[in-house]
UniProtKB/TrEMBL annotation:
Domain Phosphotyrosine protein phosphatase I: 1-149
Name this protein carries in UniProt: protein-tyrosine-phosphatase
Keyword Hydrolase: yes
UniProt superkingdom: Bacteria
Leading EC class: hydrolase
EC number: 3.1.3.48
Alphabetic keyword roster: Hydrolase, Protein phosphatase
PANTHER family: LOW MOLECULAR WEIGHT PHOSPHOTYROSINE PROTEIN PHOSPHATASE, LOW MOLECULAR WEIGHT PROTEIN TYROSINE PHOSPHATASE
GO molecular function, one term: protein tyrosine phosphatase activity
Length: 158
């Protein structure tokens, strides 16, 4: 099972989601059955680490994002991943516009897994430090819901 988190630049929201989800997979012993990555829609930050504020906020919760590096969404991601999860509606529209007709991946909003079918993870880049805490709270809630679905799919063998 492969999960890809997608935001605009891959330095705040999607690497936070990657780190939180990976951490939760490890706590449940699923890290060898599910792989997780993140990417951005644009090329602005390719090769760079997450925003320092995102790293610091995550580290306060015991999650280390320091090894992550930004990359851009690639055409083969639609075939390599089972889930492509967008942080907001604009991200989702951009992913859907690029999605090949024969892709079998689940493409949707990440917050749908937190019971917020129309919800968006707000971009904290231009805000204060509280925005990064909010992102962590939302990402954790959605990650727990996603893990439930992934575990069920793994049990079914799908």
């Amino acid at each position: 099972m492969r999960v890809l988190f997608v935001c605009l630049g891959n330095i705040c929201r999607s690497p936070t989601a990657e780190g939180v989800f990976r951490h939760l997979l490890e706590t449940r012993g699923l890290e060898h059955r599910v792989s997780v990555e993140s990417c951005g829609l644009g090329p602005w930050h390719v090769g760079k680490g997450p925003d320092s504020r995102a790293r610091e906020a995550a580290l306060r919760r015991g999650i280390d994002l320091s090894t992550l590096r930004a990359r851009q969404l690639a055409d083969d991601d639609f075939y390599r991943f089972d889930y492509l999860l967008a942080m907001d509606h604009d991200n989702l529209a951009a992913i859907e516009a690029r999605r090949p007709a024969d892709s079998q991946a689940h493409v949707g909003l990440f917050l749908a897994f937190a019971g917020q079918a129309d919800g968006a993870v707000p971009d904290p880049y231009y805000g204060g430090d509280n925005g990064f805490e909010t992102v962590l709270d939302l990402v954790e809630a959605a990650s727990l819901g996603l893990i439930e679905e992934v575990e069920a799919r793994l049990e079914r063998g799908s």
